[in-house]
Amino acid sequence: MNTPVKQINRFFLLASAPLLGLLIALLISSSIINWDHQQEVITPKSDILTTTGTIAESLSQAEVMAQSTISSIQTTAELYHKTTSTMTSIVKLTQQAADRPGNIYNDRISSKLGTPFQTIDSDKIRIELYKVNPGTYKGYAMKIKLKSPKAMKMTLGNDKLGGSETTLKAVNRYGAVAGINAGGFADAGGKRYPLSTTVMNGKYLTGFEPTYKDLFFVGMNSSGKLIGGKFQQQADLDKLDPSFGASFVPILLKDGKKTTIPLKWQTSPLRAPRVAIGNYKDDQLLVLVVDGYNESGSSGATLEELQGRLSKLGVKDAYNLDGGGSASLVVNGRIINNPSDGALRPVPTHFLFFK
């Protein structure tokens, strides 16, 4: 039983106590026939009538008191319910006022994306899918609000180091609602290994590797926030409490500002299918997947175009994930993008999203 109900029950007991005491007193004082071991004493008829009248009058007064008590209890109960209802309304209005700035910000960033052609909403995640077509390339944007840190995780191909599988297979095998390819990889001995520093379930898969050249690490912390950057010491990355993450090149945006795209990655290739992940200042995620016909450099988007689009969409930090034939976007068991290989490429790491 909850506290408000206990308080009402105590009130009923306290209010009824005087009435019960009065009734007990009347019963004790109204004895009109006494018995002893020697003889029977009979009270005269006139005394009986007087006593009966007194009892009737007392009962009448008790009834009045009872009615008054009941009325008081009803008034108190009504007041309690009104107070509870008022407090509930105040809490609701307060919550709405607190949510208003966030809702205004979300409306602003959503308006830059247009109208979603598909929406998924649950108590753990909200996903909105948009088409992106600035003229020079075509692609898709997926805005993600993680309502729970458990709504996103990274997986290994076939759950083993050196394994690889398509994003569609990973999504189906884990029962995810959506998925994208994650970090880069290196082939060796017929197997595919994640590139550089890789974290799974809070542990370094092959140990920490200091950042070199243009590599970066990107992933999520235990609170479901996007983390990333270049790290020379493991302690610096440990401070961000990584839950999972992978590595690739290069960083596109940092604190809302465009980074310098290394010369090598400006032309190798010039255009290509791309995948990027970033976050807004309210910690929502944005995934951008660009289509291309092949990896020859003649179709898709340049990194500068990708960077510019993410900046215009209001993204704060953004990281370029593996692209080309690895570019994959799967939602509700369906391949959304057009893989340049003609089919999804098996890769070693995937970012998956769950309802």
Automatic annotation (TrEMBL):
Keywords: Glycosidase, Hydrolase. Residues 174-354 form the Phosphodiester glycosidase domain. The keyword Hydrolase applies. InterPro entries: NAGPA. GO terms for molecular function: hydrolase activity, acting on glycosyl bonds. This is Phosphodiester glycosidase family protein. The lineage of its organism: Bacteria, Bacillati, Bacillota, Bacilli, Bacillales.
